[in-house]
Write a structure and sequence with these properties.
This protein is mainly beta. Among the domains are: 157 residues, no CATH class; 101 residues, no CATH class; 131 residues, no CATH class. The protein contains 16 helices and 79 strands. The strands form 2 sheets. The chain has a 73-stranded mixed beta sheet that branches. Strand 61 and strand 62 form a beta hairpin. The termini are far apart. The relative contact order is 0.02. InterPro entries: AsmA-related, DUF748, TamB_C.
């Protein structure tokens, strides 16, 4: 008991002593001197050891093992602050030291500052001296104890700390994270480390926050826990919140022994701006980032179980993968799978800019719209397989192949099969290119070597690709792009029905340029490659062989040959011949040469030329003369240039190629272009161009010349002149321009001489250049006084100036006067400011003067008033000032005065318009309303026409209408937008009379046209012709605000007059034509198509005159003397005008027109063709047939006719060798066959000319066979062939004799020569040419007497015909039997039709002396009489001469009846009916 009490007493004493000692120490250190002593003591011990300045304000020992140090300051060896703490306190559990456990129960560090730095990354930190001072002297490593001391630090609290770290030599990067510099303020930490044993680690961070000043990074909160269990470290909670981002680690573990690990981390919000603090290339990203990651493995093996990355709402990437050994990255097995990648193009562009900040969006990338991708790759970097599928809006790409790469990805190679199916490539490369619908199947190989450029090779097939809608199929391609050599080599092969070609090329732009191209184009469809509206299925064939090489573009040497070229389509074939291009170089002199030879252009360029520098050298040569206008090249140009060469080119006739390519011009005569460029010696340029004749449509430009000269002394000078030849005259213009001393002068001379105007004058304009205060160019334009003689009047141009500045044009006192009267004036300022205005004013300015410039002489009138425009260079504000055109008149009528009042509407931002044409008290035309200009306000225009005379239109259509009368009335409203107007209203024609000039047909119209926003319609419009016959017209025109118009026209005609110009024999077609039927036409912007079915129902007659060609012959033996020569300054305009062939200026522009018609022709239509108006050769025919006519504006010829026309009757007028014009009757059954081209029309016509001739002239034997040898003879003419080549055959026919006589005649006239001679004799003399040994042989020696007898007979015909009525036909015959007028036989044939053609009488009466021929009677009389009782009963009587071999009596008489009626009995046959026929 005593012992226990002792122990308690001793323990109590110890406790009391300890407590007392703490109280003593607490009380002792409560005194300031003691605290200072303790601090000084400690500093005294540390300063010598650290060799630096230190300070401690106080040291306090509190109760229960707590120590507090205040005002602790430590300098580094550069006498800069290393560490300062206002308060540092700690509490130590001393008793735990007995258990080998260092337990710091709390640590407090308040308001502290620490500055750590080192000068360079290799230098020590500024606190290294402290480490060195306390480093143990024994550096031998000791083995750790088996039972190391346990350490725990609990309740760690750091507050209001400032930390600064710098590597002085490294640059600052404000706003960006920099590991060499950071400055932290407001550093606060609450943590607890219950165990620092790595095998039993227990650490928790309850809160960590700070602000980093240099980057703007603010860590709001960091919470974490870390535990260990043996060799395994793990954590299930790490939360980080900084700025606008957050991160959470929900599961993380790592085993120090097995190296197994796993990590599960996610973020629901990462602001790219926060990430950009650490990686500044993310600065441009502006969408939130989210990700989830699940990683696991056993190092060095690692596996990405799932990695999902999201950027904004449109991008998601999911990645899975595994690597067997990252330490052997280059050789280990790797697998990567991207099962899902979905990305917008906008996001893709953001990611591209991470690596390429200056990347700008391109349309090709934007066309992909949304991108989807899947990928699988497996293997090692030395060899892996890859399969990928890329889905985009245009289509899908598939790749399946293998790849290789080294560990640093410096050498990469990928090869495999690339496929696509109907890839809408047009969306990628641009729809304007025209390529689309690509189907590809090819092997691709890509190689990238270290420090080398890529090499790409393809070999495969383009299954199909469309170009401008045309499909190209089965194109074999192989080629290589070598980035190291900057070259492309390949081959393209195609063999289909539409396209067959094989082209090879090797093109390089490396150290040595080369262009090697060769191939064969057997057939290439051009319809999609080149758009020429007139082409119909165009194709090209050619052979190409070329090789050019050199150091650069200027030194290329070689040749190119293009031959066997043929361009053809459905309408033409153009073979331009070979094209040769040759480039040569002389190695000794260095002179180079380019030669071009072809059927179109040939020329040569020789000397030292540099295409690369020619542009900058020319600008450098012009700069001294126009320094303000032409700036000095940014790239300094050498004082001595590189270009010194001559050129000479010849442009030949381009009629064929202009037609084939539908060019807007034709160079008729050879044009030359030549000159010299010398930038070496004198910086001079000389160019001369001469174009003798150039056709632009119907514009004929002659003797155009341009001369350009440039040198250092006289500056630049351009002289140009040309003649525009018109049908009624010409216009000559010359321009002389000179540029020197920062100014340009223009002298324009014009001479006009035509039916509209006669004018001469010069206009002199000079321009000076300067810079304003802001450096912008300013042009000061001076218009010098000038006089222009116009139609006998002198027009004065007053001196004036124009100042052209940036966004401002000032016109001062521009005036045109006649004598002292002002015609036109312009003055003011045109700019973008509303207060600036420019005004044009007129004073009795003749409208004729203005229109004469356009070769228009239709209207005359006087322009008065003015027009003012404010802010003319922006949205112009327009208003008029009493603007009018007075006394508007044509050649035949006075229209009135046009008043135009326009005022700007500031509220609606547009023009309020009120215009009208007034004549006396009549308001013919009124246009009023609002027109928006630069605003969205709707348009509202009313157009009213009141009894406007149609005759006013006449001057505009003189060539179309020879007469116009009637009136027009209308009420139309225009609304909507100006780009898409909405039209409603009506247009009426009252008592309209119009005579078509060419056809001379007068039509009358009175009807109303209804106009709606979508349709313009005519319903059953009646058109009447001269005969009051009608045609009915129906029209329906649909449109969308006059865009995309389509129409349907239907015409129904009933015996309608289409041609009525029988007196106009100067026209190509004249006569009278009336047709019935219908015509239907459908049209739109894509073409006009129609059909017609027409027929002739009443008598019509039409003549067509074929165009004639003539060629002058040259007679060198004829010399003209005493012929006055008239001086002609324009003689070159007329040279070879008689021998020049017609230039085809037809342009193949315009929409296609295709109309098909069926013409049913009857004998009521008599058609004629005037084959040769000079000789009178003509063909007149009427018959029947069905003709199919096709008109196709794109075909050559545009009109094609098909069908057979069978003649019933007709005449062929034939001028026989300019001796006599004979009329031949066309025999029924003759045909005209139309086979397409009208000039290829086939004729198969038999015609005859009937005469009464004595066949005894050929042989005496006929007198023994015939009592009267004078009989009817037909001179036959057979016409065969076409209009371009007609074949004529001659023959003789006896229609009224027996076959024996005919055979006898054929035996006498058997050869072609005999037929031709007898044919000529019959048609010229009315008789046969006597055969040798015949009674009339003497006649053969006196053809003149025979011909005179024939002409006398014709004269008697005319005399007797004039004495008798029109229904009598007279034919006389005067025949000389011996070549003299002593032995002649004369005959008269009469025929007539009487009593409405019921009685027909014909006679053949002749008389001759009995001594003329013993075998003939002195008088011979034959007649034939026929009388129609009715249409089936006829009485007939006759008297005819007998043939001698069959009859004894010289004549035979007879009478009888002719019955043409079907009857079963005689009574029925002669049954008459006397009832009056009903109408």
């Amino acid at each position: 008991m005593k012992i226990a009490k002792k122990i308690v007493r001793i323990f109590a004493i110890v406790v009391v002593c300890v407590i007392g000692l703490n109280i003593i120490l607490f009380l002792t250190f409560s005194f300031q001197p003691v605290q200072k002593f303790a601090a000084d003591f400690a500093i005294g011990k540390l300063e010598p050891k650290l060799k630096t300045e230190m300070a401690v304000e106080r040291i306090r020992i509190k109760l229960f093992n707590r120590v507090e140090i205040g005002g602790l300051y430590v300098e580094d060896q550069r006498r800069d602050t290393l560490f300062f703490a206002e308060t540092l306190s700690a509490r130590l559990n001393i008793w735990n030291l007995l258990n080998n456990h260092l337990s710091i129960e709390s640590v407090r560090l308040e308001n502290f500052t620490a500055k750590v730095y080192r000068l360079t990354p290799a230098d020590p930190f500024n606190f290294q001296f402290i480490v060195d001072a306390f480093a143990p002297a024994d550096t031998v490593r000791k083995e750790p104890k088996e039972d190391p001391m346990k350490i725990s630090i609990n309740d760690i609290r750091l507050s209001d700390g400032t930390l600064r770290y710098d590597i002085v030599s490294q640059p600052d990067t404000p706003g960006k994270f920099n590991a060499a510099h950071f400055s932290v303020r407001q550093f606060n930490l609450v943590a607890d480390i219950s165990s620092l044993d790595i095998k039993h680690l227990i650490a928790d961070i309850s809160k960590l926050s700070f602000d980093e000043e240099l980057t703007g990074l603010r860590v709001h909160d960091l919470q974490a826990m870390v535990r260990s269990d043996g060799s395994r470290l793990w954590s299930n909670r790490v939360l980080l919140s900084l700025n606008n981002s957050g991160l959470e680690v929900s599961d993380a573990a790592y085993d120090l022994e097995s190296k197994a690990f796993n990590l599960t981390v996610k973020s629901d919000q990462i602001d790219p701006k926060d990430a950009a603090i650490f990686y500044d290339k993310l600065t441009h990203l502006d969408k939130p980032i989210l990700f989830n990651a699940d990683l696991a493995g056993k190092l060095p093996q690692a596996e990405i179980r799932n990695l999902t990355f999201r950027y904004g709402s449109k991008t998601t990437i999911t990645v899975n993968g595994e690597i067997a050994d990252y330490a052997k990255f280059g050789d280990t097995a790797i697998s990567v799978e991207i099962p899902n990648l979905r990305m917008s193009v906008e996001d893709l562009e953001d990611f591209i800019r991470i690596g390429a900040p200056r990347f700008e969006s391109v349309p090709q990338l934007a066309a992909l719209e949304d991108i989807g991708l899947t990928l699988k790759a497996k293997g090692t970097l030395a060899g892996f397989s890859v399969t990928t599928r890329i889905n985009t809006s245009p289509g899908t790409l598939l790749f399946d192949g293998r790849g290789r790469a080294d560990g640093r990805f410096e050498n990469i190679s990928v090869d495999g099969r690339l496929r696509s199916d109907n890839l809408r490539i047009g969306k990628v490369i641009g729809e304007q290119v025209g390529v689309d619908d690509l189907s590809l199947n090819t092997v691709a190989n890509v190689k990238i070597r270290k420090k080398e450029r890529p090499v790409v090779a393809i070999d495969g097939n383009i299954g199909s690709v469309s170009y401008k809608g045309y499909p190209y199929r089965d194109i074999a391609v192989n080629g290589t792009y070598n980035g190291n050599e900057n070259s492309v080599a390949g081959r393209v092969l195609m063999d289909t029905e539409e396209n067959r070609f094989d082209l090879q090329a090797d093109i390089g732009f490396g150290d040595r340029m080369k262009f090697d191209v060769n191939g064969i184009i057997d057939k290439l469809f051009l319809g999609s490659l080149i758009t020429v509206e007139s082409w119909e299925n165009p194709y090209l064939t050619a052979r190409i062989n070329g090789s050019l090489s050199g150091k650069n573009l200027d030194d290329l040497v070689g040749n190119v040959v293009i031959d066997s070229t043929s361009l053809y389509d459905a309408n033409f074939i153009y073979n331009p011949g070979p094209v040769y291009l040759q480039a040569l170089s002389d190695e000794i002199s260095g002179e180079k040469k380019i030669e071009l030879l072809s059927s179109i252009v040939e020329g040569k360029l020789s000397g030292n030329y540099s295409f690369v520098s020619i542009g900058s050298e020319l600008m450098n040569a012009l700069h001294p003369h126009l320094p303000t206008l032409i700036k000095e090249p940014a790239k300094k140009v050498a004082a001595t240039g590189m270009n010194h060469f001559n050129f000479n080119f010849l442009l030949k006739n381009t009629e064929d190629i202009s037609y084939a390519l539908s060019l807007p011009f034709i160079n008729v005569e050879p044009a030359t272009l030549s000159g010299t460029v010398d930038m070496v010696n004198g910086k001079s340029v000389r160019v001369e161009c001469h174009v003798p004749r150039l056709m632009f449509g119907q514009n004929d430009l002659r003797e155009s010349r341009v001369e350009l000269n440039l040198d250092t002394v006289s500056g630049a000078r351009v002289s140009a002149g040309s003649y525009l030849v018109q049908e009624n005259g010409h216009i000559n213009a010359r321009l002389d321009t000179r540029a020197i001393s920062d100014s340009i002068t223009h002298l324009l001379s014009v001479h006009v001489d035509n039916n509209v105007a006669h004018a001469d004058g010069n206009l002199n304009v000079s321009m000076g250049f300067r810079n304003d205060l802001e450096g912008n160019p300013v042009s000061d334009i001076s218009i010098h006084p000038a006089e222009i003689l116009f139609n006998g009047k002198t027009i004065h141009v007053a001196p004036s100036t124009v100042v052209y500045e940036k966004e401002r044009i000032t016109v001062n006192d521009f005036e045109i006067r006649e004598e002292e009267m002002l015609l036109l004036g312009i003055d003011g300022v045109a700019s973008k400011r509303q207060e600036d205005a420019i005004r044009a004013f007129f004073n009795n300015t003749e409208m004729e003067t203005i229109l004469a410039a356009f070769n228009i002489s239709t209207f005359k009138g006087a322009i008065n008033g003015g027009v003012t425009v404010n802010q003319a260079l922006a949205d112009p504000l327009i208003r008029t000032e009493n603007f009018r055109i007075e006394n508007i008149r044509t050649q035949t009528d006075t229209l009135g005065t046009l008043f135009i009042e326009g005022n700007w509407d500031l509220l609606k931002r547009g023009l309020s318009l009120d215009a009208s044409i007034k004549n006396n008290k009549s308001n013919y035309l009124v246009v009023d309303g609002f027109i928006p200009i630069g605003s969205d306000h709707p348009m509202d225009i009313d157009i009213r026409i009141n009894n406007l005379p149609l005759a006013w239109v006449q001057p505009f259509a003189v060539s179309t209408f020879s007469q116009l009368s009637g009136t027009v009335n209308s009420a139309i409203n225009l609304s909507g937008k100006t780009s898409a107007p909405v039209t409603e209203g009506w247009l009426g024609i009252n008592k309209g009379i119009m005579t078509v000039a060419f056809t001379n047909v007068t039509y009358s119209i009175s009807d109303t046209i209804t106009i709606t926003p979508g349709n313009i319609g005519l319903n059953n419009l009646i058109i009447k012709d001269n005969n009051n016959h009608e045609a009915r017209l129906n029209l329906s025109l649909s449109h969308n605000n006059f865009d995309g118009m389509s129409y349907n026209v239907g015409i129904i005609m009933s015996d309608f007059l289409l041609l009525n110009n029988a007196q106009r024999t100067d026209e190509i077609a004249y006569g009278t034509l009336k047709l019935s039927g219908n015509i239907n036409i459908n049209g739109s912007s894509s073409g006009i198509y129609g059909n017609a079915n027409l027929r002739s129902e009443s008598r019509s007659s039409i003549r067509i005159e074929l165009p004639q060609t003539a060629q002058a012959e040259e007679y060198s033996g004829i010399i003209f003397i005493n012929t006055p020569q008239v001086a002609d300054s324009l003689s070159f305009l007329k040279k070879r005008e008689n021998s020049d062939r017609q230039i085809n200026t037809r342009l193949s522009a315009g929409i296609p027109i295709n109309i098909q018609a069926i013409l049913n022709l009857t004998p009521m239509l008599e058609a004629g063709v005037v084959i040769n108006p000079t000789t009178g050769d003509a063909l007149e025919i009427n018959g029947s047939g069905q003709i199919r006519a096709n008109f196709d504006s794109r075909a050559v010829p545009p009109v094609r006719l098909y069908g057979d026309y069978v003649a019933e009757e007709g005449k062929f007028r034939y001028n026989f060798q300019n001796l006599k014009t004979i009329d031949f009757n066309i025999r029924e059954g003759s045909t005209v066959t139309l086979v397409g081209d009208p000039l290829s029309t086939q004729f198969n016509i038999a015609a005859f000319n009937q005469v009464n001739a004595d066949i005894a002239t050929l042989s005496e034997t006929f007198t023994t066979q015939l009592s009267n040898t004078r009989t009817t003879v037909n001179a036959l003419l057979e016409i065969q062939g076409n209009l371009e080549q007609m074949n004529l055959k001659y023959g003789i026919e006896l229609p009224d004799v027996s076959n024996d006589i005919r055979q006898r005649l054929n035996s006498l006239i058997s050869t072609d020569e005999q037929k031709n001679r007898q044919f000529a004799s019959l048609i010229l003399t009315g008789g046969f040419f006597p055969a040798e040994g015949s009674l009339g042989v003497a006649f053969g020696n006196n053809m003149a007497a025979t011909f005179a007898a024939g002409q006398l007979a014709k004269g008697l015909d005319a005399l007797l015909a004039g004495a008798l009525n029109d229904n009598w036909t007279v034919s006389t015959n005067l025949q000389s039997l011996d070549g003299t007028f002593e032995n002649v036989r004369m005959g008269v044939d009469l025929s007539t039709r009487l009593f409405d053609d019921r009685l027909r009488v014909s006679t053949n009466l002749s008389y001759g002396d009995n001594s003329t021929l013993a075998t003939q009677q002195a008088f011979m009389g034959e007649f034939e009489l026929e009388y129609d009782i009715n249409n089936w009963l006829m009485i007939r009587a006759y008297n005819r001469a007998n043939q001698r071999f069959s009859k004894r009596a010289p004549t035979t008489q007879g009478a009888g009846i002719v019955v043409t009626r079907n009857a079963r009995t005689l009574k029925e046959l002669f049954r008459f009916s006397f009832r009056k026929k009903e109408d």
